[in-house]
Structures are given as structure tokens and as C-alpha cells.
Structures
1.
Amino acid sequence: MAQVLETAAKETESLISGSEAIAVACKLADVDVITAYPIRPYDTVMQYVAKLVSNGELDCEYIVAESEHSQFEIVKHASAAGARVFCGSSGVGWMYAFEALTVTPALRIPMVAMVGNRALDDPGAFGVEHNDALAVRDLGWQLVWVDNAQEALDVALIAYRVAEDRRVFLPCAIGCDGAFLTHSQTQVKIPPQEWVNAFLPPYNRGDLLLHPDNPITVAPQVNEDWLMEIRKHNDEAMKRSKIVIKEVYADFARIFGRDYGNPYFEEYHTEDADVVLVGMGTLSMPVKVAIRRMRQEGKKVGFVRLRWFRPFPTEELAQTLGRFKAVGVIDRDFSFGSPHLSGVLATEVRAALYPAATRPPLAGFICGLGGREVTVPDVQRMSDMLLKAAAGETQPLTTWIGIRE
Amino acid sequence: MGRLFAVEIVYRGIFQKNLAKNISRGIALAARANGKMGISFGRYGDSPERNGIPAKNFAVIGTDEETLQEGMAKYEPKEVDITISVDDTLLKGVESWAWYGLQPINRLLRPGGTLIVTSMHEADALIPMAHRKETPYQLAILKGTPSFSGLWVYKDDHTDVRILGAIARVLPELFTIDDVEQAIMEEWNDPLKTVSARKSHDRTATRSVQPTEGNPDHPFEFTLPKWHEMREGVVIPSIARGAGFADPATEQVGGFRPVRNPTFKKFTTRTMRPVVDFETCVKCTLCWLQCPDSCFDVTPDGLYDANMEACCGCGVCEAVCPVENCVTMVNESAFQDNSSQWEMWKKDKPAYKAWLQEKIQHKPERSHGFRYRGQYQDQIKTMVADGVLEVPGKEEITITERVVSDMGEASSGGME
């Protein structure tokens, strides 16, 4: 392998969007079957994939289905028959595929899907909310969020390696914020094919392969005497996923020379922070800008950007967050009627912290819904509330930020 | 902290979508050649898959990665160094598919920033089209007709690289003409385009526009309601039906004018407008019936008056009108306001007739869409004959040749 890497061509650089980066990853991963059905912002991926196919750069079955439901069913079956597959959708398109989404992890299908995060209708809106992807959080889907086009490309490759690991065999959805990531072109380093080949072995479905030479029945009807054990399989697979993710990121750093450090979450200015914000996706940009400004004013604010939501890095996150005097969780989603009327992420972080040795006060923030910009003043306001909480002044458990009121 | 640059490209949906994307990409690539980092993106709330609708692309450039972050995860910059308008009729303002009200073309321009327009008009004709701005700004005109093509095609008339050359001239801190040439070769590998860029760079001149110059009108705007002021259930009230109105000459009340949405008018989609000869109108109703935007008011005397607060300039009325020269589409840059043609006619018929003749004599001067094959060539000849296009010392030169010679050695193989 060392020889492969030495003789391999260098990385090239290209000005591409997050969606194009995912399409490039499909090409590098030599995906066999891709299905598509248009909805903004995911449709940008299918456009670039179609371009790669028509230019002869990607040799795959590219099927435009008649709906998202069929789109996800087709790749599910193709994956069962041993094909590496890619799929994706957004907002209510993802929801229209929901039945197919529920059966995919149960059948241990290592599908990789891109969710171009979009608000759920009604009313019709294009902007980012995370509720679409989060809807599958309980079903056995691995869920990861990225915040730039480079990470989108890298994580798409990582997702195949993790999902297709025999210890895991679970689907993985990559959350990409609509507009800010899917429609924004930045400089991205594109690795040479040799590196990807060295990193990503062929998909081997082994004894689960649906093939005449391997006579099996997939998904028979079962009842109460079987189902609980089958659920336990997925529980264990998800548990193992967390270990595999760590291994794969280490291998990625070795081969590609890009080290993401802690694979589960990124820490920004946390070393000496009094308080931290936690969030997912592209809101990292205004948060980082605001933190740099606040640090000039002497306010010790840090940021934890969660990448992997499923499997949830419970112990790691609890240990990290326990160090601070107050924690604020920014949700680009809602969960009406939930505990403390918080967003999904805040509820999960609270749950993770409950058995922790130290439990800082936690404030939940609902912010940036429907793609509304999370602004630097928004972040400063949230941070100021946390600094007050750190000083012993009780803050509301949930606050809506940036709403006209 | 380094410096953050921003450039916006204002363009017309479908016709210029690829052009705008190429320009913003080109800016990011040229800035990259200059050692800066950039992003290129379209305004997400726009819907540029609609004919002629004003839309925007942006290039945001930082001198380093941290600075660039200040301009990321946003729909649009708060302020731009350069606004590029690739169709001069956009100078009248921008109302996108997204619901922002009417935005002056120079709204985002920072004090002293530059507005670059592609146009065959001179500054004196262009400046009154744009709303006044409190601070002075620069105007640079890139000679040429607006570059229009379709959604899936690209009219490679070098408008993209000529814009890049002009940017290098007015904002050399962003990138130089050498950087532009490097980016062109990397992106397009076309030496001819580098020549065009350099010619444009060398010829670009700016003129200062003062706060006292421009359209004094206040663009329509509105206040977004608070959450507790909005109706529940994603419900909005319907627009009221409409009523008759008075004849300014006879004071007779009649006809019908539908009430129109006061906050979403769409008329900046228009690159040309119908001019109506009320004396030859046979009242056949076809324009009124076929207008996709219900823009025609029925007058008390049974005529049809295209309301310029509602007309999107699609040209269907002209196409369906059975009377020759009764409805004529005329380039939007020929008009200063949205006032009623019918009222003008009612008040002073001889004056209206003179006005009408003056407007329709440039009949082929449409910005996009042609009535017949070969009309583009005819249009050039007419423009030359009418003096719209100045061709010093060379009678037979076509506008294409003029633009090409402006660009450089693209077709003739030599300059001067």
C-alpha cells in the first residue's frame, strides 16, 4: 500500500459546492446504483451525478424513480444484491420515502444517503431545518452532519467504509444544510482514486448476499416470538458503529493526511472556555466568528460542533461538557411538546448529561428555523445568557432566538 | 483580521443563469490565483428557473480562511464592493421570487463601490433608471447588448471574462488582470478569452454618481409581521376583487381594475413592455384574456390598458393581438415610470400619438426573444441606422463585430 500512495497522483483542487462534493465522492467510491427524484436542495446532487454519468466519468446504474418511496426501495434491493448504492432527498421528499427508510436498517442495508436538510412543508420552504433527517433517529440510521464541502466529500467516503463494515451494516445519512452547504461553491481538495481505493475496500455482503448461489429469504413475516431479538441485532450494530467510526477516521487520516481528530465532535476554543455552545451543521460559521469577537472582549466562550448524532457519543460528550460552567444547545429543529419544549439535540444532550458526575446548567435554543440565518448577534445573545447562567443567574430552559416578537 | 470582499451579480432568470454562475465562479478562481479564498453561490430564495425574474449570484472573498468565515452561511452579504448588472433594465430595481420588496440595484453597494452594467446606453440614460443612493458610487459601463441565452445553453460571447477584466480594473486589491488570465486558462483554457478580458480591463472607465442623481422614487417595501400578529394555520387573506375606475377626461366611471398584491408586484421581471395604440384597438379582448398576469385593466370606455405595476413583459399580448402595430413590445429602458398609457392618451391624444411613434420606432429593440429567424441581424442594422449603436468610421460593422472588437482579437485576428 505504501507504494501505491507514493506513486499516486496528488490531490487536485476544485471550486465545487457541498452537493458536487458528494457527487464526486460517489464517483471516487465507484458506486454501482444511484437512484434519484428531484427536490431542492438534494436535486443538485442528482444533477451533478447525472453529469458525471453522461460525461462517462461514473459508470453506474442511474435510475430516476417515479417517487422518493421507489427511489429508496430500488437502492435497498440493489444493496441486498451486493451493489454499492447512493440515494438522497430533502424535507418532505425524505418523508415520502419513510416506509422504505424504516425497512432499510432492519435489513442491515449499508446504504449511504445525502439529506439536503430542508424545512418540512407546510408552508413550502426551501431553507434548512434538521427535522427531516432527525425523523429517522430512532430507526437504526447512522446520522452525521457536516459543515463544509470538503467534509462532505470526506465523510461520504468515511460513511461507505463505516456502513459497509460487516460489524455495522447499517445505513448512513449525511446531513447537509440546504443553501449554505448544498449551494455554495468552495475550494475542495479531491483525492486521487488510488488513495480512495486504498481506503475503501469493495462492498462485500457475504452470507447476506441476495443471490441464486446463496439461497436465503430476506424479511419474512415474524411475530412477538422473533422481533425483539432482531431489534437487539440493530442495537448491537449501532453500538459497534461507534467503535468502527473511530477506526475509520484514524485510517482516513493515515491515507488522506487530513486528521479530523475526535471523529464524533469538533471542539473550538474549548480549552479555557467558561461556557460552550453545542450545535450541528453550518451554523458553525457564525458561531466561530462570534466566538472570535467575544474572546477579544474577554468572554471565554467555546463551541462543540456535533458531527455524529447516531450513534450518539454519549460518554465522550458528557465528559467534555461536564467541564464547563454552562452549556447552550442550538437546535435547528423543533420537537413540539418535548421535555422543557426543547429541540431534539438539547433533549438528547440533557439525557446524556443526567448520569454525569458534573452537570452544568443547560439552556436550549431554537434558532435558524426554515433556513433563517443564525447571525453573529444571535450567537452573542445566546452566549451572554450562558455567561449569566455560569454566574449563577438562572436562565430559561428553552429560548427561541431570532424570531420576530 | 483580513479583508472581506463581496461582489454581487444581478441577472435575469433562465436567460442569464449560466452567465451569472460563470462570473461568480470566475471571481472566486481569479481571487484564488491572487492567493485569496473565495466562495461562489446563488441567492437561495431566488427562483432563477423563471423567465426573466431578477436573481442574484454572489462571490465572497477573504484574504484568509477565518475572514472568509465571516461571509459564509449567509443568503447574501450585507454590503458589496461591486454590483454587476448583466442587463441594463435591471437598473430599475430588483424584486426576486423571494419576498423582499423592491430593492434598488445599488442597495448593497458600499459607499464608493462600483456598479458595472452591460449596456449600449450611455451613463446619462442609465443613471436615471437606478434609484438614488445616499452615498456616491462609481458607474462603469461595459459596452454590449445584454447577453441572453436559455437555461441549458450558454452564449459564449465573452461577457463573463469581460466582466472579470473590468473588476480587475476597478478593484485591483481583489485580483489583477494577470490573475484573471490565469483563472481563465485554468477554467476555460481559452487564450481568446484572456484577450477579451484584458481589452475590457484596459478600456473600463468609471464615472461618479452623486446622491442627487437617479430615480428619486422610494421603492415599495413592507414590514414583516410578528409571529403573534400572523394568522394561524398558514392562512393569508385573499386579495380583494377589484372595481371600476374613472375616465380622467370624461369622469365616466366603469370598467374593471383588479386589486393587486401590494407587496409582491413582479414588474421588475420585465425587460420590455407593451405599448398600445388605443385608436386601432378593435376591443377583441384577446390581450386581456391571454395575459398570464391579469395585468390589463378594462377601461370605462372598453379598452385594455396594460398596468405597469403588474406587467411582467412576457409579450403574449403582442403575439395574440390581431391588429398590426396595436400592441408593440418595446425595451424597458425606453421608459422612466409605470404610469398609465390609457390615461396619457385620454388626456392628450396627439401628444400620445407622437409618444407612441417615438417608442415603437425601435420596435425590434427587444432584449430577448425574436419574432422571426434573422431578426437579430436586422436588429443590429436598425440600431446602427437609428444611431443607437455608434459605429465610428465603419458603416457595415455589425454589433457582434463591435463587441468582438471591443473584446479584442476574437474574430478579426488583430486589433488597431
2.
Amino acid sequence: MLSRTADNLYWLARYVERAEYLARILETTQRLTAMPLDQSRSTNEWETALATAGCAGAFYQAHDKATEEAVTHFLAFSPDNPSSIRNCLEVARHNARAVRTALTMETWDAINTTWLDLKRFGHKSASREELTRFLQWVQESSLRFDGSAYRTMLRNDAYWFSRIGLYSERADNTARILDVKYHLLLPAHEHVGGPVDYFQWAAILRSVSALTAYHWVYRDSVKPWLIADLLILNDQLPRSLSSCYENMVQNLDRIAAAYGRQGPPQRLARSIRTKLQNTRIDDIFQGGLHEFISDFIAENNRLGAAVTQQYLI
Amino acid sequence: MASAFDEMTGTDGGVRDPYEALSTWLGEVNPEVLEVRRREAELLFRRIGITFAVYGEAEATERLIPFDVIPRILSAKEWRFLEQGLIQRVKTLNLFLKDIYSRREILRAGIVPEDLVFPNPVFRPEMNGQKVPHDIYVHVAGIDIVRVDAETFYVLEDNARTPSGVSYMLENREIMLRLFPELFARHRVASVEDYPDQLLATLKSVAPAGASSDPTVVVMTPGVYNSAYYEHSFLADKLGVELVEGNDLFVKAGLVYMRTTQGPRRVDVIYRRIDDDFLDPLTFRPDSALGVAGLMSAYHAGNVTLANAVGTGIADDKAIYSYMPEIVRFYLGEEAILKNVPTWRCREADHLSYVLDHLDELVVKEVHGSGGYGMLIGPTADKATIAAFRDKIRRTPRNFIAQPTLALSTCPTCVESGVAPRHVDLRPFVLTGRDRTRIVPGGLTRVALKEGSLVVNSSQGGGTKDTWVLDR
């Protein structure tokens, strides 16, 4: 398959995944700010949302203050933010159009319909109700895209490259949430845990659609170190770093088998996977949660570069 | 201008044979049903993403070509006649190109004036003496045909470079089959769906001598911003080959490769939908970012086949067009089966004075223009436009040809007020390979949706119809 085609598929999946992630961040933030939080707290949740989305730098170039309206607009609709939901979906569709021949009718239809529907939502910030509908719609669109790819695409390199894109993005997203909120998860934090913290913890879980999952897995009240365990090490949670890398290794191995050749991406992915498998949450806290997450983000980026080097250019 | 020949009702208002079943059906069908299906068709087109780009319109970078749900019908007999004429025409185009780029007998015989060839920007000196596999230059031709009465078809224009529209032919049929199965049941319509197979067989048959027995074919596109991008991706998909852009290819040691996830892979045949000018920045436009550096050297070495060949523009040039009847006679010793539209060449003094005297009756075309731009339609133009054109023609007469305004045939078409006749043309696609010439029955019918309009170009608001060739 053409390297450019593989590259487009990889980024197509990444952008759809990112759009969904942004939608969940906005939803969670909306929810958090609706809570009767202690007014004396200095954290601005909208600032946090920007950091989690990795867009704070770009935002402050054009804005002074992270207000709800400005951040929502910036993350959801702004044409000036290359990573706004709107732009993610535009780029995804552009990529899809460039590789139409590698997509099934259903997968193309999912992304093209999303793009056509996107026009219904204006560029302007919407009312809260409209925004809620929009965010719901983004998540449904992503489900539809993902589902149609899963159900209709041939299991060949086209599919595997798009999955690799998806898991790179998903791992990065989960890691970013942890990176921004890690201080809430430190064990020392427990004694100050009040209702405010509970909202925060629940918000973290919600942003990876794992609030219910948490209770199923741990059968326990929400404890910060267990949240970290779930998001980092638990294979059962589809958005955990461990689960992402289980899939990453699997898809890279399929490519290696089909092409008859192992390369740096396979080796790197396997080493990250092994590390996640052989680590306990206590070790992570001992070595520093923040350091662990920073390292992971860097490693995940290195893998992206290796995949690009080996296959996409 | 005489009143137009209607393909359903003829000139006497009766119903012509091929349209009998359609006419009955149109009489029975509820107009609302037609409207509902029309909207359904539009929805399908949009969802499939069959769009084209209109240059110069910032907002509408992707637009739908309006689709008319009433098919245009040709009888088996009419089609047999057209088919023979098309085969003869394309054979001539290929012989002409071979001659122009080698012995130039037609110039020496004085049939075509030299000054229409050598200074012409679409003539490619790089092709002089270049061998192309099996002497085939035009592998894919789109011949635009108009009809003026029951018997008379004219070739309006030959397209020997990168003719587009075949995806519409195929998608129109798909959508009609989906929306109007009951109408198909009343007819025996010849199938067009094997066009991609025919195209692939044609392309493989012209692979370079050194290629493997299963040559690698690719479709080359200028990219997603090209107006015909949908078609390029559609064809690559149906052919089951890679859709490449210039950056996907590179040339090494005289061979062409594409960059794949498994490393470089040799390419044998390039069905290129990119103009000569952009093919290779080392040979043609140095600023082209769409091409492949060194592609022409691989081509000259005979290591890759380009379809169509480089330099075919000289065969479909509007200035050369008017000589086609003589060209057919020169190479084949036959009369042209498909007539040319009578054409005045402004380069000839007596033609020029006739044209200048009759501008209000004639259609004047610039010989290098395309897409309905740079054209004067005398009968509908105002005085100022005519005067401006008169000056343009006087300044460089050789750039212009003129033709009578033809009463193009009409077909019943869905318009706002119901079903009404609208003018149509036809673009059949002719494939020429080593083994034989292939033409799928039908082609793309374009229709001028505005009442009285003769301009069918999609860039000028024309639409398309499914074209049915009856099996008997």
C-alpha cells in the first residue's frame, strides 16, 4: 500500500479519536463547573480543560482569559485552532477523501455524513443545550466511524494502520488527563479528600468513560490510587495505557507478519507494553506518578515517529 | 435557428420507437414520485461524495452536478452506427499522432497546415521520434457528439487528453437501477458496468515490453483539489489499483517506483489524469509540484507507459478539428462516418469575412479554450459582447473557429414546471488497447437544464442523465 495512504489512514483515525476526546473533556468540564464547588479554590476548570487538550499555548496567543465561552468556542468550533473539534473532523474527512479507495463504503459514509452534518452546527458558540447536543453528536459520530471500520474493513494493512493511529491518540489522551490531574491522584491527597475531590475523581473517570467501569472492576468507593491503576495498568479498560499498548503491539505485529519484517516500531511498542505489564501501581507512585506519565508521553511520541519513519514516508 | 429535434417525439409529435415504453411510463407516473426520486438521487450523490469543484468559487469548492432522473435512450441501430463512427474516429486520431511525431506525411501532403502544428503549445517536440507501445497514443478518448435530427450526428469535439465524466456514466446507472427498477423492467438496457474491467484490460495491454506478465497499473491524480478528483479515486477503486500523486512516485535509474509501506515498488503503466505540463518538472513546467522529476526520462527509455501518451493535445485541438474529415480520408481512404459540425476557420480570408458578417448567428470558439469559457454564442449575445469579440477575432484570426448554432436535439427532462424538453449532448468513451478497441454502450449524456440553453458543461450549470442503449 502507498505510504501516503497509510499515513492518511493513520491520521484519519487519530483525528476522529481526538475529536471524541475533546468532546468528552468539554462535557466533563461543563459538569464540573456546574457543581457547587468551593469558591475559594483557585483552579479554573476551563484552564485545566485547555491543558488537558494540549492547547493552552495556542489559546493564550489569542485570548487573555480562559472563560467558559472562549474555551468552549476554541476547543469545539474555532477555525483558528488546528485541534478544535471542527478542524479535527474537517481534516479527518479531508484525509478520508484522499484515501477513499482504502475505505469501505460504510466507513467513508460515516465520516462524510459527519462532515456534512457538521455544517448544521454554526461557527459561533452555542447555547448550553446546543453545545450538549453537539458534544453528544461528536461522540456518536466517532462511535459510528469506529464501528463501521471495525465491522466492514478488511483485516489488512489499511485497517491495522488506522488502528495504530487510533491507539496512539487514545494512549496520548489518557496520559494527558493523568498528566494534568496527577496531583489529585497522589495517595497523600486522600486525607484532604472531600466532596470537591470526589467530583474531580469522578470527572477523571468520566473523561475516559470509566465511572461505571471503576465500580465493576474494584467494587470499592472511588480511591485516587485505584483510579491511577485503572487508567494506567488495567487491561480491561479500553482507554487504559496498558490496553492501548496491548492493541498497539497486536496491530504492529500483524503488519510485521504480513510484510515479513519486524522493525523498530515493533520493538519499541513491545518494550513499552512489557514495562506496563511488569509494573505495579505502588512502583509508579514510588518513582513518581508525574515522571512516569511524562516518560510515557515521550515514549508514545517516539513510537509515532518510528511508525512514520518505517511506513508512512 | 430551426426548432430542435426531440429524441422522444421526433419532429411530428408522435413517439419514436426507442422511447415508446418510457413515454407510456411518463404518462402513468405521478409527478410527485418523480420529484421524490429526484431528491433521493441528490441525497445519494451527496452521500457517496460524487462532487466536482468549480474553479473560482470559494464557497462551493465541492458541488453536485445536477442529475436528471429521466434517461436518454438510443436504439441498438443508432448505437451501432455511432460505434462504427467512433472506432473510425479514434483510429484516425492515433494514426495522426503517430504520423505527426514521426514522418509527418500529412503535413508534407499539405492536408494540415504546418503552422497549426509546430507553434501550437499542445504540440510536444519531446515526442518527436518517441516510440510508444503498439503505436497507441490515445488509450482513453471521450468524443463529444451532438444530434440534430433522426439521422444526423456530429462530432462536436474530440477529447484525447484526459477526458473525464465516465464516473458519472457509471454512478448514474447505479442510482437509476436503485431508484427505478420498474422502468428497467420495461426495457432491455445494455450494461455499462464492466467499463472498469475494460479499462484495466486496455491499460495492461499497453504495458512496456520489459514489464512482467502482470504489469502494475496506477491512476495518477493531481490531488484532492482537482475538479475531477472524485472520478480519479472512483476509477482507482474500481480498477483495484493505487491512486497516486506525484509525491508517491520517484524515478531511479530510469525506472518508475511508488513509495509503499513495504518499500519501493515498480510501476509499469500510469493512467495519468494530470496534464502534460505538470508531468515532470524537469521537462515541462519547472514549478510543477504535482509531477515526478525524471518521469519523462523513464518514458523516453520505454520503461513506463503513460496513458494517454504525452502530446495528444495536438489531435484534439480545435484548430485541427476542422480538418478531421480530410484527415480520416488521408489515413483510411474512407469518408468520415461521423460528420464534423460545419466549421469556418478564421485563419482563411474568405471564412473570416463570412464569420465577421454573421457573428450574430454563429458560435465562435477560441481554438485553445475549453469548458465553455472564451466562447461567443452569437444569437444570445448582446451587441457590446459581439463587438468586443469582433475585435478579438480581427486581432488574431487564427485563434478562432466558428460554427453555426446547432439546434441540438432535446430529451424529456424534469424541470420545475414538470417534464419538458432540454438540449443534450453525448460523450461516449472509447478505449484503445493492443488487442482491440472497446466501447461500452452509452456514455455520458449532458443536459442544459435552463430552457433554451445550449451549454451543457457542468461548469456552466449543465446536468447529466443516464444514457440507455437498448439491446435490440
3.
Amino acid sequence: MTTQAARLGDPSRGPEEDSFLKRLRRKNWFPYLMTVPAVIVVVAVVVYPMAYSLFVSFTPFHLLRPDTTSQFVLEDMFNNYARLARDDVFWRALWNTILFMVVTVNASIVIGFGMAMMLARMTFAMGPVRVLLMIPMMFAPVLIGFQFAWFFNATVGLVNNALLTLGLISQPVAWLVDEPTGMMSLMLATIWMTVPVVSIVLLAGRLSLSEELYDAASVDGASVYQRMRHITLPQMRPFFVIVMVLLSLDIARAYDIVRIMTDGGPAHRTELIWTYAGQLAIRGSQFGMASAMSMAGVVLGVTFTFILFRQMMQLRKDMG
Amino acid sequence: MRDTNMIRSGRLAIPLAAALAATALGAGTVMAQDELAYAGLDKDLSGVTIKMANIGGGNYEAMYDSISKFEEETGATVEIVFLGDGFEIDRYLKTNYAAGTVDFDVAWNHTSFMSQYTNFVEPLQDYFTAEELAAFSPSIIEAATIDGNLQLIPRHADISALYYRTDLFGDADLQAKFEEAYGYPLAPPTTLDQMYDMAEFFVGEGVIQFGTEFAGKEEAVAGRFYELLFANGGDYFDADLNPIFDSEAGIASATWMRDLYANGLVPLDTPNLVWDGVAANFCNGDVAFYLEWYGWYGYFQDPESCPNVAGKFDLTRGPVGMDPETHTGWAGAHAFSVAKDSQNKEAAVQLIKFLTSEAVAFEESNTFGFLPVRADVSADVEAANADTGTPLDAERWALANLQVSEDFRTPPLFADWISFTNDWYPTLQSIILGDMSVEDGLAKGVSDARDLLDSLGYY
């Protein structure tokens, strides 16, 4: 009846609604239908856990008291966030995480870029060198954590032994305990792991640049610095942004290496958001509190990603 | 029997110690080793796979060697799905219990950790006869019976004793130098102050890398602080679970730890060490003396594992602190439980009966030095070591009996003891590292503990 009325042009229906229904009918739904499996997977593995975690962050959920997960009380829903706001360790972990990201991402890019430039000028044995360069990528972060934990061990570590033997230090140094060497050791291990990826991507970027630009610049008398400043860096900007996005997302989730090397300690000196969340959730059984902290981590990660994607979009616009 | 969240600090210690002493000193009939009784082998378990999640590291893993006998006799297959140190296994159990992803039938348990797992382990009282349960320390069984449900079957007890290097303490030259410098003879320390003096002396003389040591993270450091605290006459909590460790005893205990670290008398990486780390240092011959569990005795005494210290160390009673009557003696019992979600509960119980049987417990105690929790095993071990010609072993048993009867003290047995220690130990580390003054750190620790327990509904 309704359909018939609509077909006949029911005067009670506006022309906009009429055309909307027509558009809806005319729309080809098949492409949308094809995305349904992907949407289901994303909802199951991303949206649902995130939503559940958000819900849990409003409860006093204790890991070993399952009944507490359903203890949602409207007036107490921000208790975990209020405790976090008062928690000095949380702010320290947040600051450490930002510092860790900024230093490791930038240092990895600078070192990786330098290595890519050197590799680009190699005229022989480039294949074997590239393979060697990729070796750190083949190690699991956990193994890298153990490896560097041994390097920096105060008693039997390679670094102390080497420095003592060379006479560069007179007493062993507690690299993983002292400040700021604890954070620096973690950063070094992470940089060692990420530099190969950066080098490979930037090397590919450098090799994709037209040599004609450099030839023309040479003819015009451009110095090495000028060629770098006016050709290499601007032309490779998209590669830098991609590497930065990938690294930021990867390093923002840093956990394995830190967990193995210092576990966020001692005394929270190397605490990152994720190690602190893990400590609260698993060892402390305070899952509600840990979920609230994870939400803070998600906000931080999304903010970083948003800024970087905006830069990427701007870049695409600039480059036409 | 006790309520789930009831605090039993100190109060459990006395009956448990008394019962363990009775166990250890038990004058039961001494049986020849070949007459020792196995249990749990009377059922055919062909085709059944029993999965275990257990503590590993050090001597603990060697203890599972006896499982092959169980497999041969019953036809069962025992699969170890997880081995890790005490803290790793705790994390593994908690995450699997909470997530409902239990993939094991038999699980490690401990008197310090058991209160956390009560919702997830099978009550065991109906699987054991009264006679079977009577073989174990009555106080452990009582302490492990929460709301009428028996949570665990004990495997062995442990208490911290002072391990010291006999070659250093017996050195005439060092003895003379020490007496001249400190005004009293060099002998195994009997007070915390003496421990400090001797650590300082040995390091100052350059005869060893570290005077003493302690594990510096997680429950390990919080527990070590606990025994210093009670040796100094203090405690973590009062009877109503109010934190009270910012006391004079707390200040003395934290200052002792901080000064040892600040003056280089303990390893530089102390805050990153747990049990395996400190044991490795002593095993390497880098430490003059320290408080450690009996369970490491067999490992240190093995010339293949620890050639630098095997035959060159002895044990003595823990020192006293400000309270001249109270010795250190942090203690507890390792145990087994059956997961509530186990699909093979009967078979799992059979395995536990086997692993805690007189014969297996005797082998483990006699070989590795673990303190038995069965009266019959104590008598067997004492008899077996009486005429071995190794006075150290006989003396060790006498010492164990003394410590168990007089110094045995478990941590406060409330469900969130581990949550509390995880909240507290980073602050204790801050004190040790000098990031915070002792007074500020203790005040923060007390305030944080109150906040935590308040948020968990204790007040």
C-alpha cells in the first residue's frame, strides 16, 4: 500500500524523500556487500575489544574477581581515570613514552637515512650488504631484548667488560638501572632494531630518484650539500613521511624489548604506558585501571597517527 | 579454616611453624628408603594426558624427573605446558584463569599466592581421605582451607636461612683484620648490623665482589623487606589491614637496604634481580653471604653446577634486627592444585598424590634439600642424613628444625598480597636507589597501600 502510494506520488511525502528512496533503490549495493566479511573481522578483532576495554575502564574490574566486571556504577564510572590523573607514575610513564617515541623515531630516521645514502653510492657488493643490513629485522623483539640486556648487564655484560678492559671506565656501570642510561639503553636497542627498515625504505626511495636531476645540478655547479638540500631531501619527503608513520605506530606499541630489558623499572625509571598497564593488569590484577591507562595510550597513538596522516595528506596535495 | 580476605599475618606463622616443627622433628618410624611408599599409582590412566603448569628454574625443574615413573606405572602422559619462575607462573595462571583459557589440569600454587586463585581451583578435600591429608602439616592444610574448600596439597616448605662462605669466614688473616677493625670476632652474622659490617669488611678487603645481596624487584624484594621489618619488630599491616610499615622498624629496614646499595656492598643491578639472578651470583662465588631459601642448597652444593662454592659454604639461622628475640624467617610452602576447568580432575589428583607421596617427597628433600611437609618424610630424611659422614647435612636438618619451629613467618595471607607487593616494590626500589628519602618513600608506600586496598574494597 505504502509502496503503491509512493509510486503514485503520495502528496503527503515530500519530493526530497521520494528522490532519496529512488536513489536508495538505484544504488548498487554489491560493492558494499563485498566489504561485509572485512567489516565483521574488523568489528570482531578491533571494535569489540576496544569497546569492551572502554567499558571495563569504567568498572572496578579485578582480574581474579570476574563478578567485578559487571559492577558498573554511573557515579563511580570515572574512578579509574581520576586515580590515573592523581598517579605520578602514570604521568611519568606518559612522558617516558613520548620521549621514547620522539628520540627513537628521529634517531632511527637520521641513522637510517645516512646508511641509505652510503648504500646508494656503493658500486659493488650491494646485495650482500643489504642482506647483512636486514639481519636485525629477522630477530624477534624478545630476542633483541635478551641480547641487549646481556650487553648492558652490570656484572657480566659485554659493554662494561669492554670499557673496563679498554680502561675507559674504572668501575662497572649499572646501565639498566641508572638514569638516564636505562632509557638510553632501551632506545639504543630499539634503534638497532628499526634502522634496517628505515634504511631499506629510504634506499629504495633514493634509488627511485632520477639521476638526471643530480647530473643537471652538477653541471650547474651545485655542491654536495646543495644537492642534498634542494634535490634529495625534498624529493624523498614522501618516503620520510611513510617511514615516520610506520615507525611511530610500531614504536608507540613498544613493549617486548622494554619488558625484557628493564620491565619499566627500576623504580619506574623506564616505565612506558604499556609496561605500566601490563603491570597493573596482570601482576596487580587491576584490570579496570589498566584499561583506563590503555585508553590513554590509544588516545596518544591516535593523536600521533592523526598528525602524521595530516602531514601525508598535505604532502600529497603539495606534490599534486 | 578462614575467610577469603582475612589477614593472617603473624597469626598463621605460629601454628604453622609449630606444626612444621612437629613435622620436621617427627619421631615416626624410620623406614628404609626402599620401603618408602609411592601414592597415586593405583589407577590405570592409559590414554589420559595430564597437563601441568608449573614453577621452573634452579632445582625446581629437576623435581619433575620423577614423573616418568608415574607415566610408566599408570600409562598416563604428563605434558608440561608451562614452566617459569614464581612470578612468571603467577602471571601465566592469573591470565589463563581470568580469561577462561585454562589449558592445564595441575597447577603450581603457593601459600603466598593461593588466596588469589580461590575462584579457579578445584576444592580437593573430597579427593583425599582423612588419612592421606593427615600426613601433611596440619597448619598448612588448615591455612589452605578457605571457606571450607581445600585449595592445595603442599609439596615442600621453605624458609630463608643465611648462606655464608666458610672459606672467607674461616680465614685466619681475615678474622684478625676484622676483629681489629670492628672490635668483635668474624663469625657468621647474628644481627642485621653485623651483616652490614661484614659486607663492608669483605668488599673493603677486596676478597669478594659483593658482601651480600638481595633480590631487588617484585614480591622478592617486598618479601625480603618484610622479614627485615619483622626482625626489627615491625609489620606491614595491623590486624585490620591498616598499613603500618612507616614505623621505626620500617625506617631501619629500608635504611639497611639503601645503605648496602649506596655503598656498593650489593650488586649494582640489584633492582633488576630476582631469584635466579641472586642465586647465580652466589653460585659464581661473587657473594660472601646472603639470605636465601633452603631449596637452593642442593644446587649450590653440586660441584658441576657451582664449582666455585660447592663444599665452601654453610647455613646459619637468620639474623635478628632491633628486636633481639625475632630472627628473619620469611617462609611459605610450594604446592599443587587442580584447575576447576580441568577435564581430567581424577587423573590430576592422582598425579598430585604421586608427586606429594612419601617416596617422591623423600627423594626431592634428600637430593635437593627442600624442607618436607610430611612427618614421615622428615623422619626419613633425618635418618638418612644422620650417618652419611657429611656433618653439614645433619647440621642443616637441625638448623631447619630450629628455624621452622621458631622463626617460620608467612607474609600476610590476604587475597591481594601480590597486588600490594607489586604496588609497593617500585617505591621501595626508589628508596634503595636514593630517588626518595626513606621517610618519604615509606610514607608514600603506606599512603599508596591504603589507596589500593580501599579501591579493592578492604575498608
